[in-house]
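Hi V.,

You were right to ask for the full record rather than a summary. Here it is.
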Amino acid sequence: MNGILRGLLEGLAVLATLEVVMVALSVLAAWRIERLTPPQGGFLEIDGVRLHVLERGHGPPVVLIHGLGGQIGHFAHSLVARLSGDFHVVAFDRPGSGYSSPVPGGIAEQAAILAHAIRSMKLGKPLIVGHSLGGAVALALALDEPDCVGGLALIAPATHPIERAPLPFRSLVIRSKLMRHLYAWTAAGPAALVARFLFFRAAFAPEPAPADFGSAGGGLLALRPSNIYVTSTELVAGLDGDRAIEAMPRRYASLTLPIGVLYGREDRILDWRAQGEALKREIPSLDFELVDGGHMLPVTQPDVCSRFIRRIAARMPLWPP
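Predicted structure:
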């Protein structure tokens, strides 16, 4: 009996040591990632939430909102430079992503914080560009905070609930908060760093991921423990029924502002039929464009995205505000 107890205690000690080592490796990895991908903009304090924000250019305001597991670098990698010559471009790290602090709640709460930021920065009614999950946030902004939105240019947007997580994110479907924390701060970070090129390849497929996406595109930031936890939380909320995402489709017909959707027909993250084409059925006046390409169009096809954004901007009456 004493031998069994001793063996059990020794096993627990080994497990505890492994956990400590994994946490230490995760902290070290996060530190290294932050050295490689420092903040690209400044910071704004809104209702106790610290938002990382990048501003470039002058002219009518365009606000960029990234998707799940993303950050400002998805736009700053190439799209911002193409817009900032004619527009006042403002890109946010969504709460909990990149270098922005998290906020309790889901899509609606994020939209409310960004609306406060738009008012604080005196941007009037900007064109909101939302990519992927950022498209859902952009739609929530238009529905709940109409004084902060002049038009919507949605790129591969999430517009309706999904039933199954996209393949690159399935390992993050962890419904227990405790297990989510443990995974994020132990195995997830080091494993993701080792397999990062496979993850990037899956997210960009069938298009290739840029060789410098991890650093210049900020892709490595998604592999920090804090960001992994938030990504998992947002993913589970989307699968289990974020109330805002569930309710929004019933309200889409009320939107009368200029709206456009751009999708890649080979998108392997979101289904353009279930997300883009479905929104077109609910808003017949929507400008829907389908192009060859995958999900990460702001990075892989910035010229196409720039032309699309400019086309939707041209439809906005009495703009700038």
